[in-house]
């Protein structure tokens, strides 16, 4: 397989969890743990794209390559675009965007999205999703859903419950969000939960920076909709199971700390000693 580069956009400011990239996880900053998982994927190079010198300092202390990027980028994709340019990556290089708040990310998943993009020259982006069977998740606007075509291309991403089951959901209307997980769930509904893991070619990252934000992107606050709006194709990897949990809130951080302190830590693929 041709090589690929893993880039980790790390933004120090976070509304729900300030200083998130530097949060301590068993003596190691979160962003460093993410970099170690990414390195275990077989990536040719792993680089943290920091927006603050403190993140870069932490990376240097743990022998993780990093660069400093503009703190004012509106999206992580814009940050990657700057980083790819600074690193001098070839236009055809495949870059995997690994989120800085995924310290338990599975290396196999990082590699799989890179391989998917390499196998789909007709696509600008590859991403991932897994089956969604929970009514609570289906109606949770914080969980992004994706609908795909027969050949595995993304048709739409949304925070809304898509695809909408007219038969099972419409009669319940607003009351459905308060019902139990097993009620009114159509077993044959092709619902997918999007996983925020992306692969791009460097040439597309440079193109993305020039695209105007799309109305649907602004409405949903989902930057991948900009690519769809402007005609890009996005290949979707169908995963068999959800990825380990990421960190968005203090509660998430406590949960991941507990997992790392438990037997689960020994089962995290690619986990390196702290």
Quantity of strands, as a count: 11
The domain tally reads 1
Q: Could you tell me the CATH topology label.
A: Spore Coat Polysaccharide Biosynthesis Protein SpsA, Chain A
Instruction: Output the structural class.
Output: alpha/beta
Query: Mean of residue pLDDT?
Result: 89
Please identify the top-level CATH class: Alpha Beta
Features:
11 strands; nine-stranded mixed sheet; 274 residues; 30% helix; two-stranded antiparallel ribbon; alpha/beta; disordered C terminus; globular; single chain; Spore Coat Polysaccharide Biosynthesis Protein SpsA, Chain A
How would you characterize this protein structure?
This protein has 274 residues and is an alpha/beta fold. It has a single domain (5-265), classed as Alpha-Beta Complex (Spore Coat Polysaccharide Biosynthesis Protein SpsA, Chain A). It is 30% helix and 20% strand. The strands form two sheets. Strands 1, 4, 5, 6, 7, 8, 9, 10 and 11 form a nine-stranded mixed sheet that branches. Strands 2-3 form a two-stranded antiparallel ribbon.
Write the layout of secondary structure elements.
Layout: E1 5-10, E2 24-25, E3 28-29, H1 30-39, E4 45-50, H2 53-61, E5 66-68, H3 76-87, E6 94-97, H4 107-119, E7 125-131, H5 135-138, E8 145-148, E9 154-158, H6 166-169, E10 192-201, H7 202-208, H8 215-220, H9 224-229, E11 234-239, H10 250-260
């Amino acid at each position: 397989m041709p090589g690929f580069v893993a880039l980790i956009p790390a933004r120090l400011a976070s509304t729900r969890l300030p200083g998130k990239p530097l949060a301590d996880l068993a003596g190691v900053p979160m962003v460093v743990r993410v970099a170690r998982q990414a390195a275990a994927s077989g990536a040719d190079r792993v680089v943290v794209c920091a927006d603050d010198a403190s993140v870069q300092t932490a990376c240097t202390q743990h022998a993780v390559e990093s660069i400093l990027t503009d703190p004012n980028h509106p999206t992580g994709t814009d940050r990657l675009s700057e980083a790819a340019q600074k690193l001098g990556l070839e236009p055809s290089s495949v870059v995997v965007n690994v989120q800085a708040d995924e310290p338990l990310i599975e290396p196999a998943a990082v590699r799989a999205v890179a391989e998917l993009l390499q196998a789909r020259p007709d696509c600008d982006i590859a991403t991932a999703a897994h089956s969604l069977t929970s009514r609570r998740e289906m109606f949770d606007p914080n969980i992004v859903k994706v609908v795909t075509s027969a050949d595995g291309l993304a048709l739409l991403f949304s925070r809304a419950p898509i695809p909408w089951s007219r038969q099972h959901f419409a009669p319940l209307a607003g009351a459905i969000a308060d019902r139990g997980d097993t009620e009114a769930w159509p077993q044959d509904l092709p619902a997918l939960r999007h996983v925020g893991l992306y692969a791009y070619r460097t040439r597309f990252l440079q193109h993305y920076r020039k695209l105007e934000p799309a109305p649907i992107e602004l409405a949903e606050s989902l930057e991948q909709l900009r690519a769809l709006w402007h005609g890009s194709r996005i290949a979707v990897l169908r995963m068999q199971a959800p990825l380990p949990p990421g960190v968005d809130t203090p509660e998430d951080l406590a949960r991941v700390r507990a997992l790392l302190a438990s037997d689960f830590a020994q089962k995290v693929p690619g986990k390196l000693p702290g």
